[in-house]
Amino acid sequence: MKSKSLLKWSAIIGAVVIIGISLGTIGYIYTKVTEFEQVFAQNVYIEDLSVGGLTKEEAKLKLENMKESELKQQSIVLYKNEIKKQIACNELGITYNIDETINKAFELGHQESFFEKYRISKEGLANAQKFELTKTFSDEPIHNFIKENATFFYKEPVNASIERKNRQFFVTKEVEGEALDEEATFEKMAEALKEPNNELNELIEVEAVTKTVIPEYTEASFADVQTLISSFSTSYNNASANRNENLKVAAQKISRMLLPDEIFYLSNQLEPFTEAAGYKNAGVIVNGKIEDGLGGGVCQVASTLYNAVLLTDIEIVSRQNHSLPVAYVPLGRDATYATGVIDFKFKNNTGYPLFIEGYCENNKVYVNIYGHKDAIPEYDIKFDSVVTEVIPAPATKYEDDSTLEKGKEVVEVKALDGKRVKLYKLYYKNGVLEKKELVDTSYYKPRAAVIKRGTKEVVTNHTPATPTTPQATTPPTTVPEETETNPTGNEASIPIDDIPPSVNPDDLNNFEVIQQ
Asked: Is there a smaller number of Cβ atoms within 10 Å at the N or the C end of the chain?
């Protein structure tokens, strides 16, 4: 009985031990499986990162840090010839499908049976499994990068140009430009960023796509703009070699091409008035007196140009007459110029390029305007200068002069009546006046005569005079008076007190002006 009882207890104890061991084993396995269900199976890779044994959160953090580091170290270079523009890839809004890939990779080994999960937790997957991340990026940062750098890849096209030498036209051929093709360049950059082989490259090089930019004006543009549409000339004499040289310099300076809708500024062509620019001192009239000034005479070129423009339908933007009439053009048909104050401007409204030609020859200033044949006016154009008012000259001004003997008078400035003039443009067709329009009004200021009176005492010599043969008495001499038409060729100019009302007189304190 005792033996049976011992066997019974032994069996019970053995069973308990077996059950305990079994329960312990099962508990261990359960624990391991439970732990495994929180981590990736061994032999699972996302890109080159082994995620086995990592939780999803740990794997995500590692992947994010890895990719952030890679993007900081990687740049994309946009280049064309010697031009290169670079940007770090982490500035392009690039992202990866990390969460999606983690969830997909995590499924491996976690959908098996309980004991298979235990086996995988111990041994890992039989074969290594690798997952690649998919790159995505925002279009906007790439477009912004391209737009910001487009100017560096831009090559300005050069219009064909035309010039006239020795009475012949010469056309310089255009040069094509180049511009970034932004859409095509974007596609190439996007393609390069998606290319798996570029993942390990620190520099991803993309050649910029460019397109040809055709200049607005080509050689062909000037084939039909060599027709003479107007011509005008004024005469000058040889009284002043310096003035004549200024005429030649100014005539050459106004010679240029004028594109459609472009405004011609006389100031841009003539300035600066320096000796280095070729100008010489010549007479100008300031407040009725002749003085020397660099560039004296250029207003004759301005007036000649003005009349050449008047003979066309070209739009005149700004013109001011002299304060006194000039010799080389009729009343109302002169144009003056004063640095910083008065400018002569006109706009090419013909729809075609124009070429302005100025030159001096045989004591004449010539201005020719060439353009398309359609720019030739359909009318014969004539002009009528109508004096609408004559303003009497002010009272004579007398000035004492201690260098003149008493009783002597010298006329220094001749009196001139003022005039108001209307200039009309007359349009004739087949000899019949079709229309008449007012071009402009001009005001020529009256000028008082200035006479100098001698105040110098005459010293009487009391030594008895030797008898001589009586001679005729010589009348007092006077300075030759200046005629209204100014035959010497020196042009009238704008006195300080005759500046247009739109100009602040205070501005003239620092104003160096060739007042012609």
From this structure: N
Span 403-417, pLDDT tens digits: 999 989 999 889 999
**Tokens coding 316:** 């005149």
d(CA 318, CA 502): 13
For the stretch 159-181, pLDDT in tens is 999 999 888 899 999 999 999 99
Parallel, antiparallel, or unpaired: how do β-strands 44-46 and 129-131 relate?
parallel
- What are the extents of the domains in the chain? 225-458+476-510
**Tokens standing for 399?**
């000035």
For residue 314, give every residue at least 6 positions away whose Cβ sits within 8 Å of its Cβ, in sequence order, or none: 346, 347, 348, 349, 350, 354, 369
> In terms of Cα–Cα distance, which of 396, 405, 403 is closest to 474?
405
Cα separation, 154 vs 34, in Å, equals: 64
CA dist list (Å): 430 to 231, 376, 433: 21, 16, 8
pLDDT score, position 466: 53
Q: How far apart are CA 205 and CA 183, in angstroms?
A: 17
Distances (CA, A) of 212 to 83, 152, 177, 219: 17, 15, 6, 17
Percent of the chain past pLDDT 90, that is, above it, reads 56
Is the separation of the CB atoms in 213 and 178 below 8 Å?
Answer: yes
- SS3 of 422-472: the string is EEEEEEEECCEEEEEEEEEEEEECCECCEEEEEEECCCCCCCCCCCCCCCC
Quick one: tokens of 224? Answer: 């039909």
Give the model's confidence band at 441: pLDDT under 50 very low, under 70 low, under 90 confident, else very high: very high
pLDDT tens digits, residue range 46-57? 988 998 888 889
Give kind and range of the element (H or E) at residue 252. Answer: helix 241-253
Distance separating alpha carbons of residues 89 and 145, to the nearest angstrom: 11
Partners of 86 in beta bridges:
77
Where do we find the tokens 């050459």?
252
pTM over 0.85: no
Distance CA 386, CA 189 (A): 72
